[in-house]
From TrEMBL, chain A:
Residues 83-223 form the VWFA domain. InterPro entries: C1-like_sf, Ssl1-like, TFIIH_C1-like_dom, TFIIH_SSL1/p44, VWF_A, vWFA_dom_sf, Znf_RING/FYVE/PHD. Residues 1-28 are annotated as: Disordered. This is General transcription factor IIH subunit. One of its GO terms (cellular component) is transcription factor TFIIH core complex. It comes from Rhamnella rubrinervis.
From TrEMBL, chain B:
It holds the Pfam family Tfb4. It comes from the Eukaryota. GO terms for cellular component: transcription factor TFIIH core complex; transcription factor TFIIH holo complex. The lineage of its organism: Eukaryota, Viridiplantae, Streptophyta, Embryophyta, Tracheophyta. Belongs to the TFB4 family. The keyword Phosphoprotein does not apply. PANTHER family: GENERAL TRANSCRIPTION FACTOR IIH SUBUNIT 3 (PTHR12831:SF0), TRANSCRIPTION INITIATION FACTOR IIH TFIIH , POLYPEPTIDE 3-RELATED (PTHR12831). It comes from Rhamnella rubrinervis. This is General transcription and DNA repair factor IIH subunit TFB4.
């Protein structure tokens, strides 16, 4: 519990940080000279020509709705088992200070956040970190599923020098990705700081090799658009973008966290045999097969060979069965059963005095009336017809993935179970 | 002012979202009558409110056909009831509860057919989480929220995805889900919910002493919990149920595209339409499936 408390505090701090980035309110005075103070952008002119602060809440909601629309057009088949190499350019271009304090520090900070978000959304996937330095690329961490070990390795190795070589990095990644099982989605995400690449051979050949091995390469540039990066992404089906500033970079890198649509040529679908071990009672003593130590409590028992393992997900070291817990799988089920976007209730409907509209949000009981007891802005679930406030709308679609209205009505149930079977 | 406010909302102020199972099909067969259960719960709620003057209690009823808020201590007026016989909490709550049960009963008549005797836990969990988000939004100073499920009905397998979604959302916002299960067998859903979110799962042995269980285990705030020896979990059932027969299995096949679980080898995934062991999946069937799934 103690641990949980600590995490809670961290979580709150992170939230605060996010807010600060949004409105630049948390900057120190000396920092402000470096930040773009586009204070005029937070004002708008109303009909009488007076300047007013922008109604950020409705603006934010409009932005969110745009995001939602693009997200729901995605297909249901997604590549949920991903093998991702994150290539970080640590050539001397990474020490440039156009991002504060340096490109390298900004990249490291957001890669850490990205890795955590990635494992939250893709629990069965694996990540490996690769760095380019002095024209040579190094594997910082092997493919693995533990965010902590990646973050630790990255933070220990943050120094830059020399040139950058795209070809060396791609060759290294290509060698590793060729060995993974055919059902996995192979991806490379390159965070490229320099404006050139210093290669030992013909990079076009390497790109063709990657294309042949079905490796999806994406690049996020930190300086300017480079032809070779664009060509690489186009050839391999990845995305290429160049970050304008730190918040844009954060946005771009987090776009790679949700699973990509599965393309049949990229990964061959397959049925994988897996075991669902039970967690042993706290206080029971057993020797685990992974560390060969006697341990009290915790631990899971492989259903096939009854060996004890400490952590999930893993592969049983005795019989080789992939061991996972059902919550690991369930974490990604919201990708399969997405909830429909809510409809905005039109203004004409709101002003109709004959209609009896709900006074409070169905989810959080927040009053939906604005001053003068008039019904305010709200959204409505097209299935259960319940009304929700804008905050709940965002929470429901981005975190909860359940409609409280549909979940608290019995009649919608048989429909779902029929199609599932 | 700020320092006063932070004193008011010290770390031992709790917001307890109580999810009350009012499923008539369960209570009609239970050894503990609903009225006795309710009197235990009401005394428990009162004792939470007595522990700290800023503690807040919200009660959501999960019935057989619907869920609704039935009590919110932040909205309740402090005066006693007219007759003076019952405290305000009891009379308000009981009145709302009665209205809810009647409404729930009416809904049952409209919907024909007899389903499983589970209650709408997924709905009340989702509502509780929405309410907690509202509290989080209210500013940096808020009571520490937690959810307490007082559940008796068995798990409804059709709610699995929804309940798991709610559990992960609670985990992300660091809200523990405590559960007190009074049914006959253990509830795998609530065991997982409490395990994943760091809450306490308890299955009382002697239902006559329910109040004592509730007050010793679930009344303390989150800060004080670290000093207590709370009941430890006796093994959590992490087995999954397959999508094809809804059987609980400990070994099975998982589709690499959508992670659907099957108990035996299939040629094609019934959820996402992928054909296994072939490079090209049939485009037409895939799009059919897709449309069907998006309708649900």
């Amino acid at each position: 519990m103690n641990n949980g408390e600590k995490r809670r505090l961290n979580g709150e701090q992170e939230e605060d940080d996010d807010e600060d980035e949004g409105n630049d309110g948390g900057l120190e005075a000396w920092e402000r000279t470096y930040a773009d103070e586009r204070s005029w952008e937070s004002l708008q002119e109303d009909e009488s020509g007076l300047l007013r602060p922008i109604d950020s809440k409705t603006l934010f909601h409009a932005q969110y709705r745009r995001r939602l629309r693009t997200a729901t057009t995605a297909r249901i088949q997604k590549g949920l088992i991903r093998y991702l190499f994150i290539v970080i350019d640590l050539s001397k271009a990474a020490s440039e200070m156009d991002f504060r304090p340096s490109r390298m520090a900004v990249v490291a900070k957001h890669v850490e956040a990205f890795i955590r978000e990635f494992f939250d959304q893709n629990p069965l996937s694996q990540v490996s970190l690769v760095t380019i330095k002095d024209g040579v690329s190094h594997c910082l961490t092997d493919l693995g599923g533990s965010p902590e070990s990646h973050v630790k390795a990255l933070m220990g190795k943050l120094e830059c020098s020399g040139d950058s070589s795209l070809q060396n990095a791609l060759d290294l990644v290509h060698g590793h990705l060729n060995q993974i099982p055919s059902y996995g989605v192979r991806e490379v995400l390159i965070l490229y700081s320099s404006l050139s690449t210093c290669d030992p051979g013909d990079i076009m050949e390497t790109i063709q090799q990657c294309k042949k091995s079905k490796i999806r390469c994406s690049v996020i540039g930190l300086s300017a658009e480079i032809f070779i990066c664009k060509h690489l992404c186009q050839e391999t089906g990845g995305s290429y973008s160049v970050a304008l500033d730190e918040s844009h970079f954060k946005e771009l890198i987090l776009e790679h966290a949700p699973p990509p649509p599965a393309i049949a040529e990229f990964a061959i679908s397959n049925l994988i045999k897996m075991g669902f071990p039970q967690r042993a009672a706290e206080g029971s003593v057993a020797i685990c097969s992974c560390h060969k130590e006697a341990k009290v409590g915790g631990g899971y028992t492989c259903p096939r060979c009854k060996a004890r393992v400490c952590e999930l997900p893993t592969e049983c070291c005795i019989c080789g069965l992939t061991l996972i817990s059902s919550p690991h799988l369930a974490r990604s089920y919201h990708h399969l059963f997405p909830i429909v976007p809510f409809d905005e209730v039109s203004v004409s409907l709101l002003n109709d005095p004959h209609l009896k509209l709900p006074k409070a949000c169905f989810g959080c009981q927040q009053s939906l009336l604005i001053s003068g007891n008039k019904p305010g802005l709200r959204v409505c679930c097209p299935k259960c017809k319940q009304h929700f406030c804008l905050d709940c709308d965002i929470y429901i679609h981005e975190s909860l993935h359940n409609c409280p209205g549909c979940e608290s009505a019995r009649h919608s149930k048989p429909e779902i179970s029929n199609t599932e079977v | 002012m700020a320092s006063v406010a932070s004193k008011l909302y010290a770390d031992d102020v709790s917001l307890v979202m109580v999810l009350l199972d009012t499923n008539p099909l369960f209570w009609s067969s239970s050894s503990l009558p609903f009225s006795n259960f309710l009197s235990h719960v009401l005394s428990f709620l009162n004792s939470i409110l007595l522990l700290n003057q800023f503690n807040q209690v919200v009660v959501i009823a999960s019935g057989y056909n619907s869920c609704d808020y039935i009590y919110d201590s932040s909205l309740a007026t402090n005066q006693g009831s007219d007759s003076g016989k019952m405290p305000a909490l009891c009379s308000n709550l009981l009145q709302k509860l009665e209205e809810f049960v009647i409404r729930d009963e009416q809904l049952r008549k409209e919907v024909s057919g007899d389903g499983l005797p589970s209650s709408m836990l997924s709905g009340s969990l989702s509502m509780a989480l929405c309410y907690i988000q509202k509290v989080f939004r209210s500013g940096p100073l808020h009571p520490q929220p937690r959810i307490l499920c007082l559940q008796g009905s068995p798990d409804g397998p059709e709610q699995y995805v929804a309940i798991m979604n709610a559990i992960f959302s609670a985990q992300r916002s660091m809200v523990p889900i405590d559960s007190c299960y009074i049914g006959s067998n253990n509830s795998a859903f609530l065991q997982q919910a409490s395990y994943i979110t760091g809450g306490v799962y308890l299955k009382p042995q002697q239902l006559e002493g329910l109040f004592q269980y509730l007050s010793t285990v679930f009344a303390t705030d989150l800060q004080s919990r670290s000093f207590l020896q709370l009941p430890k979990s006796v093994g959590v059932d992490f087995r999954a149920s397959c999508f094809c027969h809804k059987k609980t299995i400990d070994m099975g096949y998982v589709c690499s595209v959508c992670l659907s679980i099957f108990c035996k080898h299939h040629k094609k995934c019934s959820t996402c339409g992928s054909v296994f062991g072939q490079a090209q999946s049939d485009a037409s069937t895939a799009s059919n499936r897709k449309r069907k799934t998006s309708e649900t």
